[in-house]
What we know:
Strand order of the largest sheet: 1-4
Helix content: 40-55%
Structural class: mainly alpha
Number of domains: 1
CATH superfamily: Transferase(Phosphotransferase) domain 1
CATH architecture: Orthogonal Bundle
Number of strands: 4
Largest sheet: 2 strands, antiparallel
Amino acid sequence: xxxxxxxxxxxxxxxxxxxxxxxxxxxxxxxxxxxxxxxxxxxxxxxxxxxxxxxxxxxxxxxxxxxxxxxxxxxxxxxxxxxxxxxxxxxxxxxxxxxxxxxxxxxxxxxxxxxxxxxxxxxxxxxxxxxxxxxxxxxxxxxxxxx
Length: 147
């Protein structure tokens, strides 16, 4: 309906997205084999808020199995949310989605303005670290937004 969402709703959406990513990384097939999926195109337009207030992560068109490379799809994705290693065609890792989540959180901070808790900016900065191994695990983000 337009306008800026209140910080409490923004916080809840961020927590749900982090929880959804955690579920994605832990997903198994019908024979309980891990799927090891990485979304690789996390951005606001792929995060839908339904009329019943449920949050849905969509568009798995660029998703890959962890460790898999982009191959013929090199360069696909949304540049402003894409970490350097994804641009360089590195194997898919959850840290790529964590980077995109950091951009998403930074945008939430900008949208909410001065009422955004300082911890949100700190979390965003941690997610945007250049070195993938220095970024927080998505489970840490879920806990941070839940508290």
